[in-house]
Structure formats: structure tokens, C-alpha cells
């Protein structure tokens, strides 16, 4: 057990005053926090000066690592020039205009307008409200249900947490709200039938989706949300042919598709958007995280012309489109996001991910695919996961009481790695996109030591 925090130490004050997100509060009161004080490149340093490689870029988000003077300069310059303005009632400002233009120009499919919020959750809630508003405006008030998927992660606000398909986001919260449906998770390793090919699995999932829409009544189903690669649910890549088959069903019943690009956007999968890697043609796209390299909070919602026209018509009848946050398109995060997108272009982030990503995927597979504790190594570009398994051949998960992944996270810390555990005893790899091959090798070597130490503990 961790020794008790010294009185008045930062750890003791943390325990006394901070309510931590995504934390077992009782365990935290016993064990205390891991306090970070600074960052450099792909590394962070704690308050005792210990160095760690950040294998998941904080929360899948610090795409340019943990220091960048250009982003600091972009923020300070904008703070000096115009520290706040908003976009309500036709007011505007340069960063709002330029970032909207940049995002619409970079969209994976023709998009019409960009809207801003502060987090991925708010972006997804905003998208739901846009869809409801749109359907009301065009005279389809019944068409409101939203389909998501088991193991999806779309955020924690009331509607986005309802879209999320993970038990911890619903239990004790009285969620999901009404009108949110969850269809099957497209993870072949876990959910395909014995001997079922990826194509057959994809066909079955599309059939299940169609059955769900028909059972609910197509005139009541408005949209489906999907991450191109499911992130927090386990880094789950869909089977080959999945999105084209799913989209054929959605088109047939006039159901909109929202691509949640909060993790996949801005190069993570080797293309600018995960939608390009996975063949997704969304009507609405949400993004956040790497949009500003997470130096400041900002998220975006892109809508196509069809959806925009509905919102436009509706707002004319009401007299306003009654949605928007005080900080929608805040000039300082918007200026940082503009600079971030310029940096991605200048350093050719896609070229970098296309070079380092395959190296990372190969290094993880070479080192761990045959490891007795590893069931599956999966991923593409610079996103991956290693799923632990008690019996490799039978794909048996570990007894949850063994806390295999939680132990591995702790052993990672002892070996200079910040690791992130995902449901199903998986460990995510989603490092800063700027990570170089040598740093990948260092990360993989440290992970190997942690995994070997876990083998000893579980023996
Ligand atoms: N969507 C996806 C795919 C995410 O991974 C996340 C967060 O991890 C969110 C939405 C929610 O974003 P936020 O935590 O900024 O609200």
C-alpha cells in the first residue's frame, strides 16, 4: 500500500479538495494522486522529477506533445489582441472565421458550416440537437431516435453519455436517456461467430442494424453516431467492408450518419480523418482533442448543406437557432487551433504518421503478438491496443478480480510509462503524433519490461 500523504503536501491537499474525473474515489483517498509538473516532447515529468513516456498523449489528445512555443505564442498574441468575443446574434471575429473556413476546406466530404464548442461531449450533444431541430424543421417530428453502438465512447454530458455504450457511464447515473438505441459492437476478435469472416461479420452487423431500424420504425430513427475506430471502448477497428454496408442501410431509411472524429481526426489513423481510412461519408462530423493539440479546449461540429438548410429554415421560423455556448469559437483556443492545423501542414503530420505508424504497429506486433499474456494486438496508424488474455488460444478474458490491466498500468509507471487501461483488460497506445521511431522503440521496450513483470506477478 502507498504510504499516507504527508500533512499539507500537494498529495494531501489533492485528496482533501479535488474530486477526480474517472477515479475510484475511495481508492484515491488511500493511494493519492500522481502529480505531473512539466512536459517535453512525448514525455511528462512528475513532482519527484521522474520521467515518463506518455503512451496515450494524455487523453488521446496532445498530438504535438507537451511543449510547443508556436502554440504558446498564438495564444498570447490573441489574448493581447482580443481575449474574448463571441458568435451570438451574428457577431464574429477573425479566429472564428478562419478556423471555420479551414475545417470546412479540410473536411473528408463536402461540408457546409462549422460550429464550435469546448469539448467532444458538447460537440456530440450539439450534433444531436441539430438533428432534432433539423427533423422538426423539415416536418418530421417523429424522426428522433439516435443509434449508437455497444462500447462506443461519445462523452459524458447527458446525451453524449447516453450514446456512450459502456456500463460505467450509465450505472447509477440513470442513463441512457430515452430514444437512444445501441446496436452491436463491430469487434471481430470478440464478437464474430466461430469461423465467421470479417466480410460475413460486417454483413451480419448491417442486417442487425436494419432489423433494429425496422423494429423501431424507420420514420422514428433520425441518425447513427460512430467513431471510425472506437477509441475508449478498446481501440476497436471495424471488420472489412463494415461502413459501406452500414451506410447502405442508413441511406435506405434516410438516417443521418455522424462521424465522431474526436480521437481519429487530424492524422491519428494515417489520413487526415478516420472517415477517410474507414470509408465513412458522414452528414455531420464532430472533432476536438488534436484540433488544438489540446493546448486549449475547443471542439467542432461540421454539418453538410442538407442539415444546415434544415437548421436555417427552422431558425427563420423561431427567430433564432437557440443553441450555442458562451465560449463557442472563443478566439484564444480558436487561434491555437488555427496554428495547430498550420503546424500539421508544415511538418507534414500525415507523412510522419504514415512513416512512424507502421513502425509502431510492427514493433508492437513483433514484440507482443506471441506473448502468452496477449490475446490481440490491433490498430492502424498511430493508434493501437494490446488486449490481455488469460488463455490465448481460447481468448479467455482475465478474471476481473486479478485486475491484470490495472496492475500493468502500475508496472508501466515503475518502468517510465504512462499507460491507459481500457475496458476488457486492454492497454491503449495513442502517443503524441510527433513521436519518432526511436521513441516508439523505447516505449515498446519499457512496455515489454512491465509485461514481463506482470507475468511474474500473475504466476
Ligand atoms: N468522442 C470520443 C470519440 C472521445 O474519445 C471522447 C473523449 O475521449 C469524447 C467524444 C468526449 O470528449 P470530451 O472528453 O472532450 O468531452
From TrEMBL:
Listed name of the protein: Aspartate aminotransferase family protein
Cofactor(s) it depends on: pyridoxal 5'-phosphate
Domain of life from the UniProt record: Bacteria
GO molecular function, one term: transaminase activity
Alphabetic keyword roster: Aminotransferase, Pyridoxal phosphate, Transferase
InterPro entries in UniProt: Aminotrans_3, Aminotrans_3_PPA_site, PyrdxlP-dep_Trfase, PyrdxlP-dep_Trfase_major, PyrdxlP-dep_Trfase_small
Gene3D superfamilies in the record: Aspartate Aminotransferase, domain 1, Type I PLP-dependent aspartate aminotransferase-like (Major domain)
Family according to the record: Belongs to the class-III pyridoxal-phosphate-dependent aminotransferase family.
PANTHER family reported in the protein's UniProt record: ADENOSYLMETHIONINE-8-AMINO-7-OXONONANOATE AMINOTRANSFERASE (PTHR42684:SF3)
